[in-house]
């Protein structure tokens, strides 16, 4: 399954279209923030306990991807195109930093 196929599937599960209500966008954004917080919680526990629940972290990362994919669909963005744009932006920043 490609990232674009996954996003289409996730959007169908979450009943997201390209014109979501403010309430639906808020729900998805808060879902992403909440799942990101759970990822951070695993990292915090790694620092505290010197042990990583890798399976739990991976599960939470999957939840982050789900909400991210739904938000991509809600804004009419293909995830693959967003990833390409993000990579180009980071490459520009690295190049700019190296030329300083």
From TrEMBL:
<feature type="domain" description="NTP pyrophosphohydrolase MazG-like">
    <location>
        <begin position="30"/>
        <end position="93"/>
    </location>
</feature>
<dbReference type="InterPro" id="IPR004518">
    <property type="entry name" value="MazG-like_dom"/>
</dbReference>
<protein>
    <submittedName>
        <fullName>Pyrophosphatase</fullName>
    </submittedName>
</protein>
<dbReference type="InterPro" id="IPR011379">
    <property type="entry name" value="MazG-related_GP37"/>
</dbReference>
<dbReference type="Pfam" id="PF03819">
    <property type="entry name" value="MazG"/>
</dbReference>
